[in-house]
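Recap from last week: sequence in, structure out.
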Amino acid sequence: MNNLLSKIKNLKNDPWTLGNSVLYKLCKDYPHHKTDNEIAAKIWLIGRAYAASIERRKGKDEIINDDFYLGVVIPQIKQSGIDKWIQSCKSKGTKDTYLSVHKKITDLFERISGSKKRSLASKYLHFHLPNMFFMYDSRSSKGIGLLFKELNIGMMIREINNNLSDKSYASFYNKCLKAQDEIHIKYNVSLGCRQLDTLLINLANENLRK
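Predicted structure tokens:
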């Protein structure tokens, strides 16, 4: 059996499925950002589970993490338009909308933390909208390059140069869409965002072990 196809078929054995299901259910049961409890639970648990905590911030202020959440993170998220942004993804359903919303949340998290949080933004959005957002971080970014090599396709993807999307995430997003298409063409397998993320992480981990 083709080595890549074998890896794709093995995705059903992902040991993190149960843990991720807790985060999916959390965001499904509490999809909004109106109360302190729902905001704190989601931003805290998703950030900690995926090593992208919002409290990892620039500067050495003396605000302890609990006070940072209560005095900065929760109020700024609550006062933002995040619920409208997420709803626009559901109602419009276009790639441009997804990328624009990702940038808005990346910018929001940067205002809160003082550092780029495109990874946290992608993961936060994924658990609210699992069929629309790919999760981005250094390993998945490495993994998409390795996957393109496995698929024997070039890395040239049309760059998006505008102020409505985060350039790094937009490039990664387009590569993920291309990879999904190629896998479907070559193997007649349709991978969702979660499955593709697992494949990318597995490829990156395998490369690190070598």
